[in-house]
Amino acid sequence: xxEAAAKPVVIRMYAARxxxxxxxxxxxxxxxxxxxxxxxxxxFYGLPWLNWNGRQAVLFxxxxxxFYIFGMVLWPQDFIYLAAxxxxxxxxxxxxxxxxxxxxxxxxxPQTVYTEIFMWIERKIEGARSARIRLDRQPWTADKLARKxxxxxxxxxxxxxxxxxxxAYFAPVRSLxxxxxAFALGPWExxxxxxxxxxxxxxxxxxxxxxxxxxxxYARFQSAMFDxxxxxxxxxxxxxxxxxxxxxxxxxxxxxxxxxCIDCNMCVQVCPTGIDIRKGLQYECIGCAAxxxxxxxxxxxxxLSRGLIRYSTDNAMDNKWSARRIGQRILRTRVLIYTxxxxxxxxxxxxxxxxxxxxxxxxxxxxxSMGREVGDGMIENVYRLQIMNTAETGHTFRIKVxxxxxxxxxxxxxxxxxxxxxxxxxxxxxxxxxxxxxxxxAPGSNHIEFELTAVDDPSLSVREKAVxxxxx
Amino acid sequence: MADFTSGFWDLYIIVITVLxxxxxxxxxxxxxxxxxxxxxxxxxxxxxxxxxTELNTPLPRWWMWLFYITIVFALVYLVLYPGLGSYAGKxxxxxxxxxxxxxxxxxxxxxxxxxxxxxxDLKAVAADPQAHAxxxxxxxxxxxxxxxxDARGNKGYPDLTDKDWLYGGEPSVIKATIMKGRNGMMPPMxxxxxxxxxxxxxxxxVKSLSGLTADPIKVSFGKTKFxxxxxxxxxxGVGNQALGAPNLSDKVWLxxxxxxxxxxxIRKGRTNTMPSFHEFLxxxxxxxxxxxxxxxxxxxxxxxxxxxxxxAQK
Lengths: 472, 314
Known about the structure:
The complex is a heterodimer of chains A (472) and B (314).
Chain A: H1 3-6, E1 9-12, E2 14-15, H2 28-46, E3 51-52, E4 55-56, E5 58-61, E6 66-69, E7 72-74, H3 79-100, H4 103-108, H5 110-126, H6 129-137, H7 142-167, H8 173-181, H9 187-207, H10 209-215, H11 217-221, E8 232-235, H12 237-240, H13 252-257, H14 266-270, H15 290-301, E9 309-312, H16 314-319, H17 323-328, H18 333-355, E10 359-365, E11 372-374, E12 378-389, E13 395-402, E14 408-409, E15 414-417, E16 421-432, H19 433-438, E17 444-454, E18 457-470
Antiparallel strand pairs in A: 3-4, 5-6, 6-7, 8-9, 10-12, 11-12, 12-16, 13-15, 13-17, 14-16, 17-18
Chain B: H1 7-31, E1 33-36, E2 43-48, E3 52-55, E4 59-60, H2 61-80, H3 95-118, H4 122-126, H5 129-147, H6 171-180, E5 182-186, H7 190-193, H8 196-209, H9 216-225, H10 227-233, H11 259-268, E6 270-274, H12 278-281, H13 283-298
Helix pairs in contact in B: 1-2, 3-13, 5-13, 6-13, 8-9, 8-11
Keywords (chain A): 4Fe-4S, Electron transport, Iron, Iron-sulfur, Membrane, Metal-binding, Transmembrane, Transmembrane helix, Transport
Pfam families (chain A): Fer4_18 (PF13746), Fer4_5 (PF12801), FixG_C (PF11614)
Domain 4Fe-4S ferredoxin-type (chain A): 252-280
């Protein structure tokens, strides 16, 4: 060993990103992905434009703290429903991942969907994979400049529209549109349109697979939901190896020695994260099945059966299970538990939503006095009824109080509230002193109950407990 | 004002903060490359437990730049905003200043509404449903602690819904009360009235003025001793609103109408304070509030008031 050879070399712990030029994949899964793109984007871009009852159907009005979702108006007090919704979404993700791996990533994740749209634009302007590689390698020319400019402008337009649609969920879309025309938006609206547009442009245009590989937390913990019966995109090593180019002059004997993989590299070229699926399951694989489409296309051309790269499971690969056996293994304990929990939570969520009364009542006892004696032999407590009419229509509410024999309201028993409004109504509640003396209402605290019922709709009713204090 | 009792702590925080940030930078810079033996087949050269080696799978470089940008951001932030000991920052930002800005903004938002009412007559404001709703909410926020949510007061805190007023029930007087506050003071009168028996007699006389049951003999004795009270409460005990002296001839009692309570009042006197709200709320808000308080006992209600809309709270 010479001195020179022993000299240490410096390696870098951070490396520049290597550009990935995914080839366009065509096939069953690519079509499925495009269907997902259409569905998700029609919903995302279209939902703010729907109207309901003369207002925007879906609007999260943060300023007024009211979330409008079609016929439903959620108030901050309804935050539990959002929590339930997130839990449902999480369980759904667990369930889908346990069954079919990262299909969410490969087909419906916004990062995938926008990248798909951005790559489509890129292909239209810069051409297919080889043309793009050539374009990037050649020196700057007027044509290259024009193409690059056009691409970024097109990306920018899509990104801005995405940012606009995002903000349209929080600010009424029609006034947002007219205000944009007049450059009359508030600073926050500009900021969020710009921010969301920038995030879309950066993530779908520049970062792409880096988001999945380095930024996405889901990529990091999804392996905990995988098991040996989870569907994954796999390369059938036994059938494919040893790989090698097709040789037209090969004898049947030679052909037998060779596997089905002709090493055409198509599966690598279409991969949006730039991996080689033939090296086995890797955490970078987002399960998009582009390689399946590409390989099937090649197999069709060379007259071999499809499925050299396919959705399968670890167990199926090891034990040569049939598709039917794979299907049977879907209903395993883990999946059944996820499903049971999911059904339970969804049922609970649906029931709670259906039974939700758009009326809330808080009773606040006046702290200034414990309870006072009033002229005509009564003991009086004062309460503030904080009434929230969370329905969109106004109502007149009748207030009733019960719990002690002689208990009665000394103030008006009616409260009028507009739709979606809050009002504090002070009420005085009286109990006969003689009743108190008789023991019906003992000195100290007694339980009473307020009941609030809409005059025009008896089903709109809430009850709330309170305490009536009889002075000693 | 100094934030710390000694300059040492100021320096302590500055040194720790700056060193920590620079330390992060140095750590990042020193760890971004690594020296390995040549020909180490893509591993970092670290070996654990005899044969465990670490593959060099480099993170993207933009990630490293994000770290550097964070460090630059921290330094710029600490120059612009307070964060280094008691250094105030180039922008001069203060939380109290931000609070003042919000107050100014709130005044700009709601000021015109209150200004509109401020220019109107108090009785006209009282008849305005929107002003009534605003007044009600202000009352529940600022006045209900003492006077009760129903405005009927408590022991020692006047009932605002009756027609009995210590200083007068004209809207302008109510406004003056809220603006400037009041200091109600009844001096201890025990010595002036006389013996304990005298005090009891006077108490019974005072009860009789309101038509409450009282011992007739004590009443007749008490009447002669009531002279000590006339200066403020008047000959017939009708009170004097100029002094804030209560009318003793009605059935309204601030502390209670039993003989014992009245005797205690005579013996020890009473002191009551209504705070001034001028500084805190400003005149235009007090204007709306005064109109609401006046309406509690004067029923200015236009027909629509009974159905006053619950104005959506922000």
